[in-house]
Amino acid sequence: MSCQVEILFTPAEFRELPAAKLTGTTCVVFDVLRATSTFITALANGAHAIIPVATIAEALAAKQIFPDALLAGERNGLRIGASQSGGVEFDLGNSPREFLPARVAGRTIISTTTNGTRALRACAAAGRVLAGSWLNLAATCDYVIQRNIQRLLLVCAGTGEDLALEDAFAAGNFCDLLATHPRFEFSDSARVGLKLFHAASADLTTEVKSAANARRLLANAALRDDLEFCLGVNRFPIIAGMDASGKITRLSE
After folding, report:
1. Strands annotated E in the chain
2. For 166-220, how does the pLDDT look when each residue is reduced to its tens digit (9 = 90+)?
3. Residue 245 maps to a domain
4. Which pLDDT score, from 0 to 100, does residue 61 have?
5. Can you give the residue range of the structural domain that contains 222?
6. Residue 23's pLDDT band (cuts 50, 70, 90)
7. Beta bridge partners of 193
8. What's the number of domains the chain is made of?
9. Is residue 250, in this structure, part of any structural domain at all?
10. 108 beta partners
11. Residues 52-89: pLDDT tens digits?
């Protein structure tokens, strides 16, 4: 059975998802700098689950339900502080290098980020929702290939309201891995992503460094090492999926 592959490049596109009929659709969400990369790292380091929420208020409300959970997230790239949350200091930011086994093993983490968690929540009605990054690209692609999927949406979280170049590259990279399997049929949007990736693939690191998110990370001494970390292709051979309750957990292959 054939599978139609599409890419949504901007928040304006994924904001329309709740009204769409997504029951038979698999979504793979990319926020490679940095939310989905951070979630994959947390799960690889033993976190029990991630609960993505769109706003700080929703994060605080979820904390009331799950009082033992860690609060994580960012605004403008930086960990959420008391001045932004009505007096609550968040436990973690959005750097994957913070989510070490000693900190997150066995824990549930409530996270709100500028774009990534909004994109995940927008896909909640889909039949399957997966968190994608370069860190787990091959494992996620293999998971998709092995399942009878009729429609695949690759959802780029973006930057603010704009396209994020690194997410477009990652989605295009995903299409490149699918391209050897003839049952995957690429829409025009998927072909655009594929062409973007092919144009950048000779020196992907340099191309990613030119993106707005990457430049912002590189300008901050405390965050610049996140870029190299998030570019670690297939560092973690795991699949992360969001269930009907909104929790992201590690899936078995």
Report:
1. 3-8, 25-30, 49-52, 70-75, 78-79, 108-112, 128-132, 151-156, 184-186, 239-242, 248-251
2. 999 999 999 999 999 999 999 999 999 999 999 999 999 999 999 999 999 999 9
3. no
4. 98
5. 3-239
6. confident
7. none
8. 1
9. no
10. 49
11. 999 999 999 999 999 999 999 999 899 999 999 999 99
Q: Fill in the amino acid letter for 212.
A: A
Q: What residues pair up with 70 in beta bridges, in sequence order? A: 109
| Plot region of 207 (φ>0 → left; ψ -120 to 50 → alpha; else → beta) | alpha
Contact 29, 22 (CB under 8 A): no
pTM of the full structure = 0.97
Residues β-bridged to residue 3: 184
What type of residue is 4? Answer: Q
**Token duo for residue 219:** 């300008």
**Domain holding 39: CATH number?**
3.90.1560.10
Alpha-carbon span 84 to 88, nearest angstrom:
8
**Does some domain include residue 170?**
yes
Element (H, E) at 78: strand 78-79
